[in-house]
């Protein structure tokens, strides 16, 4: 009962994403850059070949499913043990990556004379890294297991938690009802979620095998994996974290005929993940570069977004060496949907106006779309000795 | 940027579908019955565990993708040669299956004193079989290749074409602008679509391999298969046929590292197809059986829907023997989305009212949900000699 256009839209998005992805791979670039570009081109702002605009609910759902599958797959390729090895770096990178953008964001907006609500919401929108695009670049280049990739993944979890706390504080202040109890209870909920998932999760998943004979337990490990992924993604979103954090945790703790699932999730990945990047691309309006009125502020905010994450990642991960530290910093730059959610809340409550929402949108899209072409050569040019160390671990 | 509820809805639908599907399989029933029941239960009319009602656009899209993948898979398992062998039966079954329901539908509605528009639209809504649920039952029982399954698949194509013509005629009459030229040109478009796809399609697909070295051709056969499927489904919908007809044709003509694709499409099937049946189940409101005012007419229309398809299938496929002919008739009963599209057009143009739309909805959902429990035992009890013949062909 959908209009004919939805299937046609999916066809056009998928075709453009696959063709440009293939072309970019042919020239040694990660496919994801082609997929993002495909979205920009067929989207409403350039050729307008798809009938639904960037905000269409159904395309957003498909995109969301895609990035959820992506982070589940990345989680599958990551082990809790390896993450723990880079735990300290990840913690520092994640923390600096929230503190620096927030501080400089407040500084910029306040010095420009914006009022308290504008200052707080734009600064908060600068905090959270969206790890999807970076994870995909690492995956395209088979580099999920190198130390900087692990640091970025761990830092993204830390970062998302801190960004959620910042959002809670900021919303409280803007509403004039800041409550320490609320913040503490939010912290409690997050700690309980992470604690239960990471500590009890692996055990529960392993013990489920003993119940596999019950007629109501799906006999297929794939169905079980998808249930875990959708469940943790939804739960994660319910407590205020990004859905992809839950999906990543699902992959991290999944242990039930894992090799089968790794093989089976690949075609789902191939079918759904490109929609995330193509749909993300449709949001970019190159025309924004001609809108002089918000251009200046957009560029300033984007510059702060880039520089602060780069610095946070670099100084937080210096123990990996300068080259890998720079790689971590670059990997933390993309903002994606989390910044937009913050800005949407501010817009929805009348705290910020559509002009500042536009500024956040520009920052979000530019940091997401522009990062992969810089990240890919950095990964590829890592010195061979470090690559060898990686192979040994594999 | 979706509300948290969408991922939670997907989790609940998928969990319920997989658990009940597993339970039904355990008791020797096809999983699809459990999936339909799961949708009925968690849907808005019974427990109301999902936040979106039956009409939510995003759930419908996921359902549509599911049934498109289902029919592509069924097409993969079917060969043009085998379809041609049952071509005559399929043609008769498909034709009778449109003529009989339309004729009896007109008779019933006219004898009840409804006006011309009501009569024509309800009768037209009775015509088109939706082959998804039947194909799924055959697939659940590994019986896609038995002759009655092939007849049903072929007849579904014929049926859908005739139903589209009926709809065009009926819409023309109701609008007072019936034009023979329009009907003939519609026929021309359908013939061109089928002709190009079935005659040139396999050759084009085969020759594409020669271009596989070009950097813009997706190297993965799965990406290629999904492109073909989405493309033909969208095209099919654009000219007015059901999207699943295009998806079935895509599977039928696909021939490019086919074994890989057969293996790779399985996980996508396992993830997406249950959403189609669960979402379909959410449309059933068991409360309709207590609404006395439309109950009588709904039951009469549903009875005609069942009896006419049963008769059309039975008499059209008698050459297969009585038992298989009855199987074909039963397989043709489900109506699904096509009947609803007809009724929606009538409703949207103010030709029929919401009460008659409700009647068509009841007919559609009952024929779809109730058929599998009858179909499955009939397939399972086919005599062994015919089953042997099937194995030989495999």
Question: How would you sum up this structure, described in words?
Answer:
The structure is a homodimer of 394-residue chains. Chain A is mostly helical and 394 residues long. Chain A has one domain: Na+/H+ antiporter like fold. Chain A is built from 17 helices and no strands. Chain A has helices at 4-26, 31-42, 57-76, 80-85, 87-111, 116-125, 132-140, 147-174, 180-208, 221-238, 243-253, 258-282, 292-316, 322-331, 337-348, 354-380, 384-393. At the A-B interface, helix 1, helix 3, helix 10, helix 12 and helix 15 of A face helix 1, helix 3, helix 10, helix 12 and helix 15 of B.
Rg of chain A, alpha carbons: 21 Å
The multimeric state of the shown protein is homodimer
Largest interface, by Cβ-Cβ below 8 angstroms: which chains and how many residues each?
A-B, 53 and 53 residues
- Beta-sheet strand percentage of chain A? under 5%
Quick one: CATH class of chain A?
A: Mainly Alpha
Order of helices and strands of chain A: HHHHHHHHHHHHHHHHH
């Amino acid at each position: 009962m959908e209009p004919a256009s939805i299937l046609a839209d999916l066809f056009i998005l998928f075709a453009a994403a696959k063709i440009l992805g293939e072309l970019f791979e042919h020239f040694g670039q990660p496919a994801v850059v082609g997929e993002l570009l495909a979205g920009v081109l067929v989207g409403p702002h350039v050729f307008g070949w798809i009938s639904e605009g960037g905000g269409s609910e159904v395309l957003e759902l498909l995109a969301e499913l895609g990035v959820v599958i992506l982070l589940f797959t990345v989680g599958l390729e990551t082990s809790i043990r390896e993450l723990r090895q880079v735990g300290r770096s990840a913690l520092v990178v994640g923390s600096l990556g929230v503190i620096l953008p927030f501080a400089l964001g407040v500084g910029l907006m306040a010095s420009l004379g914006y009022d308290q609500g504008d200052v707080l919401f734009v600064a908060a929108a600068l905090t959270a890294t969206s790890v999807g695009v970076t994870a995909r670049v690492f995956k395209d280049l088979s580099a999920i297991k190198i130390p900087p990739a692990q640091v970025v993944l761990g830092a993204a979890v830390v970062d998302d938690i801190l960004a959620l706390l910042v959002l809670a504080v900021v919303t409280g202040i803007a509403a004039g009802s800041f409550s320490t109890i609320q913040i503490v209870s939010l912290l409690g909920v997050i700690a309980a979620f992470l604690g239960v998932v990471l500590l009890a999760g692996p055990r529960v998943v392993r013990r489920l095998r003993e119940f596999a004979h019950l007629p109501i337990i799906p006999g297929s490990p794939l169905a079980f994996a998808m249930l875990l992924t959708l469940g943790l993604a939804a739960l994660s979103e319910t407590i205020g974290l990004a859905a992809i954090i839950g999906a990543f945790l699902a992959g991290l703790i999944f242990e039930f005929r894992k090799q089968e699932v790794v093989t089976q999730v690949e075609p789902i990945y191939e079918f759904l993940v490109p929609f995330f990047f193509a749909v993300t691309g449709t949001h970019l309006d190159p025309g924004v570069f001609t809108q002089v009125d918000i251009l200046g502020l957009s560029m300033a905010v984007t510059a702060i977004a880039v520089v602060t994450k780069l610095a946070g990642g670099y100084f937080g991960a210096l123990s990996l060496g300068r080259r890998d530290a720079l790689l971590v910093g670059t990997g933390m730059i993309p903002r994606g949907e989390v910044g937009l959610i913050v800005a949407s809340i501010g817009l929805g409550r009348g705290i910020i106006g559509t002009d500042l929402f536009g500024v956040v949108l520009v920052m979000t899209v530019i940091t997401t779309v522009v990062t992969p072409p810089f990240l890919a050569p950095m990964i590829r040019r890592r010195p061979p000795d470090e690559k060898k160390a990686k192979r040994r671990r594999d």
